[in-house]
């Protein structure tokens, strides 16, 4: 004869075991559902990579004040503003390497954004554009001071934009989205620059 208390204990243990089994089954189902949700949200194909195209950089040289063209093969997005940012970032990377002919620290991070809009004074139906180049404050803070070196940076940016996007005829500069009087004490950043003023010096190289 099984004592009554053992029957009660057995019943309690059985109920607890069934409850635990139910909890484990529920947790297993939730884990399975999350796994399926993760699979559904995963990309079904690899992200598109921008095709490699030739870009032209107008690279400044402090030794003789020249702007020399360099051809580079770069992955360039289709959007003109994004394309301009990638190209200018590559230009600033050239200036950031050791022993650069026009040394400026910061590299591609110096270009925060590039906006394109119709050029001021453009005739109706004209495709002429104004590029607004938003520089980072870190790039500006680290830029060497001096009229010639600052002017070379500005002109190399203007010339590089026009060489790759010929519709850009004018360039304005901002720093962290705000107007700034000058680059590093000399080059005026309140004016509109004409890309026609940034003609390359004869010569160049391919990379």
Short overview:
The protein has 207 residues and is α/β, with parallel strands linked by helices.
Keywords:
38% helix, elongated, alpha/beta, 4-stranded mixed β-sheet, 207 residues
Verbal overview:
The protein is an alpha/beta fold and 207 residues long. It folds into two domains: 1-42; 52-206, no CATH class. It contains four helices and seven strands, in the order αββαββααβββ. The strands form two sheets. Strands 3-4-5-6 form a four-stranded mixed β-sheet. It has a three-stranded mixed β-sheet with strand order 1-2-7. Helix 2 packs antiparallel against helix 4. It is elongated and about 110 Å long. The model has no long low-confidence stretch (mean pLDDT 86).
């Amino acid at each position: 004869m099984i004592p009554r208390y053992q029957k009660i204990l057995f019943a309690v243990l059985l109920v607890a075991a069934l409850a635990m089994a139910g909890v484990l089954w529920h947790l297993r189902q939730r884990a399975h559902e999350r796994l399926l949700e993760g699979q559904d949200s995963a990309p079904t194909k690899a992200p598109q990579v921008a095709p490699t195209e030739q870009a032209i950089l107008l690279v400044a040289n402090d030794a003789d004040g020249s702007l020399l063209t360099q051809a580079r093969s770069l992955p360039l997005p289709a959007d003109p503003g994004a394309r301009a940012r990638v190209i200018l970032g590559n230009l600033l990377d050239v200036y950031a390497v050791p022993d650069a002919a026009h040394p400026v620290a910061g590299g591609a991070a110096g270009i925060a954004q590039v906006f394109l809009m119709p050029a001021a004074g453009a005739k109706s139906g004209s495709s002429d554009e104004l590029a607004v180049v938003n520089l980072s404050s870190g790039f500006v803070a680290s830029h060497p001071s001096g009229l010639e070196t600052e002017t070379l940076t500005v002109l190399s940016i203007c010339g590089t934009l026009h060489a790759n996007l010929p519709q850009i005829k004018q360039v304005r500069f901002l720093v962290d989205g705000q107007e700034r009087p000058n680059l590093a004490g000399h080059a005026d950043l309140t004016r509109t620059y004409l890309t026609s003023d940034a003609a390359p010096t004869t010569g160049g190289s391919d990379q």
